[in-house]
Each structure stands twice: as C-alpha cells, then as structure tokens.
Amino acid sequence: MISCLRRAGVEVVERHETVWDGREHKFGVGARAAMRLAAAELRLLRAAESASVDLQSATRVLAVARHGDRFLVETSRGALSATALVLATGGRSLPKSGSDGAGYEFARGLGHSLVATTPALVPLVLDGAMGHGIHAELSGVSIDGEIAVWVDGAVATRLSGALLWTHFGISGPLVLNASRHWARARMEGRGVHLTLNMRPGERFEQVDANWTAAVSARPRATVRSTIAADLPDAVALAVLKVLEVAPDLPLADLTRVDRRRIVHALTAWPLPVVDTRGYNFAEVTAGGVDLAEIDPATMESRVCARLFLVGEILDVDGRIGGFNFQWAWSGAAAAAAALARMSGAGTAGPGSERR
Fold first, then answer.
1. Spatial separation of the C-alpha atoms in residues 155 and 243, rounded to whole Å
2. Which of 251, 279, 302, 334 has the fewest CB atoms in 10 Å of its CB?
3. CB half-sphere exposure, 36, CA atoms < 13 A
4. What string of pLDDT tens digits covers the 355 residues of the chain?
5. Between vectors from CA 49 to CA 45 and to CA 52, what angle results, nearest 5°?
6. SS3 of residue 299 by DSSP
7. pTM exceeds cut of 0.85
8. Residue 132 CB contacts under 8 Å (≥ 6 apart), including other chains
9. Where are the domains of the chain?
10. How far is CA 235 from CA 83, 143, 162, 207, in A?
11. How do 61-67 and 70-75 pair as beta strands?
C-alpha cells in the first residue's frame, strides 16, 4: 500500500513504534496531518482523472441487478450499465459515512449468502448499577490490562493492551479488540462474560505471593499505597470501596481472607458488559458475505461472474492497528488487477480501459 501511495505521488510519513501486541506498525500521520490528507486526496483524485474515472459524489445506489451479461445499477441520478461490478460499500459501521449495510442486500440479491453481522472494534457499555461497575468514577483513567473472554464457562481468549474507563463503560485498544468476541458470542446465544486482570501477565498465585511478601517486608504500608504502586490511585480507591476494605488499613492488619479478595479483584475483576455502543461507534463490522463464495486471488464472486467484492462487505475483521485498512486496500488491488486483465489492459493504473 505504501508503494501504491508513493506511485500516486502521495507522501507517506513512517513512524516505527512498538505498540500493544509488540509488533511494529507504520502510520501515515505527520505534524500537519490535515494538510497532508488534503494533498493526498488531491493527488489521488488527479490519478483517477488521468485514468478517465467518472466519480459521482452525492449519489446513492438504490438497487443492483443482473440482466444477461450486464449489471444494471439504479442510482439517485439515474441508471448505469456495466459488464463488471465491484461492491466496495463497507459494512454497517459508522452509517453516517454512508456505510449503512445496503451493500449486503445488493450482494444477497446477486446470489450471495451472508454471515450475520455484529459491531466490532467498538467500546463496551457496562452496567453501572452492579457492584463492580466502577467506570463512572474512573472516567478518563487508563490502565494496562488483560481481558479474559469467558464463553460457556471457559476462557475462549485472552487479550492484553490499554484500557480506558469512560462514563458509559470501557474503551481503548484492549476493549476494542475484545468487543468482537463478546458480541459474536452473545449473538450466538452463548453465555459470555469478561474479566479484567489489572496485573497483565501475572496470575492469582503470583500476585498473592507478592502481597504475602509485602506484608512481611512493609507491614506498615497501607493497602491503598500497595495497590497504587502499580495502578492509578483512583483505581485503588474504587476497588477498595467495592470490597469494603479501608484504604488506610496497614498490611500488618490485613486478614488472609481480605488479602485474597483484593488479589482476586486485581486479577479477575468482573466487567458487567450489557451491550456494545453499536454501529455508530464501531470501527468495523464483523460478519458479511461468506468468504467461501469469493476467489481470494481476484476477489471475484464464485456465484456471479464479473462481480467483485472487496473490503468490509466481506466476512473479515481484524484487530486494531490498521489491519482492516490493509485488508480493504489489498483486496481492492487484487480486484483492480483482475479487472485490468479482463479488459486487456494488463495492469491497473492510469490509462487502463474504463469499464
């Protein structure tokens, strides 16, 4: 994708940094992001113009149908006819951008089957009425943590990263990555709940051993200061309030039962999720057109010749970090190359035959 942008004359600013999963990622964001974006858009528009692309903005597609060897597309500005069609309509996430799920019905009408959709990479809403709903008082506080997704009584997956407490519940990279697992399990009618380990990478026994050692080494230290040594003080106070343990209680006076209750809270804090924030706040959509019905080499439909499907309309969603963008761009490049071969142009790009 970076090479493609550079060929179009778009400047790409690369910044390597280690993020949540320990991998390196590249970001096209600079100090003057708005100016760079405007310049990139202009260069891409010029590249499209040089390739004789007819862009019709503020135009809504109303219906798509196959008649003989051609596709008929009804739009708010009249009808179009083509020998090949690409559906790159997105999913249901961020409907204000125009991605309202209409593409799914177009695909279904052309013979495709759909995997049920749910929001993904979306913040989660917590029940503030439950005892462990401490999010409102911690709104704006961020911690590193590990979420365990429990499905039908067993841990289905564990994810680690940054979590942000908000007025409605939880967000941040860790939560966004966990959201699709919670939403899919709930949609399937399975028992699902989440727990948060505020000492990522450590289990109950290890943390309990550390607390036992701290009692001997620092008997006059308070339970509040002991928790706050690794977490924000506001989190320490919120946890102790729920547990009904006095924040200023010296470790020497902490009973074994209360010590283990604290350790359990730090390593398996229940997150009372009641819902996602929905498609309006979801970065991507999970589910979509069944991948078994797509040729991955060309992105052409296996059930409707000369129909191509790319991006979020397909049953693909990735974790946060640019992977969903890369999937959309790579699929589009594969489809463009296949269309160019069909037209006899050989390669996609300026000068390719219009279809």
1. 25
2. 302
3. 12
4. 777 767 766 667 665 444 443 333 444 444 456 676 677 788 888 888 888 899 998 899 999 999 999 999 999 999 999 999 999 999 999 998 888 999 999 999 999 999 999 999 999 999 988 778 899 999 999 999 999 999 999 999 999 999 999 999 999 999 999 999 999 999 999 999 999 999 999 999 999 999 999 999 999 999 999 999 999 999 999 999 999 999 999 999 999 999 999 999 999 999 999 999 999 999 999 999 999 999 999 999 999 999 999 999 999 999 998 899 999 999 999 999 999 999 875 444 433 333 3
5. 145
6. coil
7. yes
8. 242, 269, 270, 271, 272
9. 123-277
10. 60, 9, 14, 17
11. antiparallel
* Residues 6+ away with beta carbon under 8 Å from 175: 123, 124, 147, 163, 164
Q: Which residues contact 58 (CB under 8 A, 6 or more apart)?
A: none
The sign of the dihedral angle between the CA atoms of 244, 249, 251, 255 is negative
Residue type, 277: R
Residue 322 neighbours by CB distance under 10 Å = 15
Domain at 123-277, CATH class: mainly beta
Residues 122 and 92: their CA atoms lie apart, in Å, by: 12
Query: CA-based diameter of the chain, in Å?
Result: 84
Total length of the chain = 355
Residue recorded with tokens 């692309």 = 53
- Residue in the block written with tokens 């006059």: 220
H-helix or E-strand containing 70?
A: strand 70-75
Instruction: Return left, alpha or beta for 58; rule: phi > 0 is left, psi -120 to 50 is alpha, else beta.
Output: left
d(CA 281, CA 236): 30
Q: Which residues pair with 82 in a beta bridge?
A: 71
Single-letter residue type at 124? L
